[in-house]
Amino acid sequence: MEELNARIKHTKLINARSLDLDKLKLDKLPNGIFDAIPSVRSLNLSENLLSELSNNIFDKLTKLSFLSLDSNKITKLSCGIFDHLTKLQFLILNACNDGSSVVLSDTIFNSLASLQSLYMSHNEIINLPNTMFNSLTNLKILNISCNKITNLPSTTFDSLINLYVLDLRCNGLTMLPKNLFKSLSKLKKLNMSYNRLTKLPKSIFVPLKNVNKINMSSSGLTKLPTTLFNSLTELKILNISNNCLTKLPESIFVSLKNVNKINMSYNGLTKLPKSIFVSLKNVNKINMSYNSLTKLPITLFNSLTELKILNMSNNNLNKLSIMTFLSLNNLEELDISYNYITRLLNNVFDPLVNVRLINMANNQLSRLPKILFELTTNLEVLDISCNRLTYLPKMIFSTLIKLDVLNISDNELVVLPKILFGSLFNLRHLNLQQNRLVRLSPATFESLNNLKTLDLSTNKLTMLPTKLFNPMSKLHKLYLKHNKLTVLPNKIFDTLIDLEVLSVAENKIIKLPRSFSSLVNLRELYISNNYLTKITFDSLIELEVLYVNNNQIKQLPNKLFNALTKLRQLGVN
Length: 573
Hints:
By secondary structure, the protein is mainly beta. Among the domains are: 149 residues, Alpha-Beta Horseshoe (Leucine-rich repeat, LRR (right-handed beta-alpha superhelix)); 107 residues, Leucine-rich repeat, LRR (right-handed beta-alpha superhelix), CATH 3.80.10.10; 116 residues, Ribonuclease Inhibitor (Leucine-rich repeat, LRR (right-handed beta-alpha superhelix), Alpha-Beta Horseshoe), CATH 3.80.10. It has a 24-stranded parallel beta sheet, with no helix packed on it. A two-stranded parallel sheet has the order 4-6.
């Protein structure tokens, strides 16, 4: 401590503008320690062990504009400790306690008329005196999140006429007075998530004429008043997710003409009124996932002409009308995964001419119409995994020339039409694992010149055509594990000079093909659980990961690993 005192009083610090004393394990500060450096504008005392501060510790720092006491062990701040900091603009008191509730006087901020940002989160605060913020008329940011405040007097924020950001999240608030925000006409962002509110006064948001973001998620809300959002004409982002809402009033969003994002996921919604979105002319993202929706009104999305992202995953939908997406010409991402859809109509996706991603995984589809994707020519990512598909029409992907990622895994496909992927010249990632494929045509992948990843694992393949991978000179990862392969053709890997990861584990392979030596860029090799009796890796000088365990190898050659200078993982038991 004497060393610190001497350091601060050193002549070079007399005119210092900034002083960082964070992370020094300081447990106390001597009286007068800052008296010799009155020019300091910024003082950082965060992440120390300070448990108390003398009342006049900051008295000489009259030019201070930034002060952080973040992450200390202070449980009480005396009422006059900030009285001389009349130019202070930023005050950080986050987690300045030791786990006990911080006690604050109702006059502690009385001299801080210049303060613009005040952070008081994680302090176990139970009560806020209703006049505590009365002098903070220039405050723009107030964070009192993650405390234990259960009640706020209606006059708490009355003087905060210039407040832009208010963070009330993660408290124990059970109710909010209807006039709590009456002076906050300039507020832009309001976070009241993670509280215990079950309902809100219908007029609570009326003063918030300029708010553009409201987060009400995880607050235990069971019902929203019909007119709750009527005054929020400037609102851009609304989050009402993770509450207990089973229904919403039809006109709940009627005034939100400028909103562009709505998150209503993780509720108990069982149905939506047909006109609930009719006024949302500018919305571009709606998340209604993780609800209990069983069907949608056919005109539900008709007015959402600017919508770009729509997430309806994890509901109980069993069908989609031909009219469902009729107006969504600008939609770019559609997620209908984890529902109970058994059938899709021929033209259901026809309006989605700009869609780039469709996720249909984890439904109960057993077949797909052959013209399902005929007009979705801008599609880049398609996931139809985890369904019950036994067959795919040979031309189903014929228009998807921009497709980059295709996931067909976890279905019941036995055979692939040889021209199925004929138009997918730009495909880079193809997942076919966990099907029932028994054989592949030599021409199956002949158009996939840009493929980077191919997963054929967990099928029933017994053999592979010699030229199956010939077009894939850019392939980086190839997974063939858990099939029934006994022999790999000698020239099977001839063109795969860029291959970096190869797994043929859990097959019945008795020997490695001669083309194995062409895999000069291979970094990971998994050949465990086969019937190999001998191995050699002379050409695999880039290999970093090798698993050969559970084969029929009785003895490893003496110089087997001499060339493998980069090896860092090895399994040989």
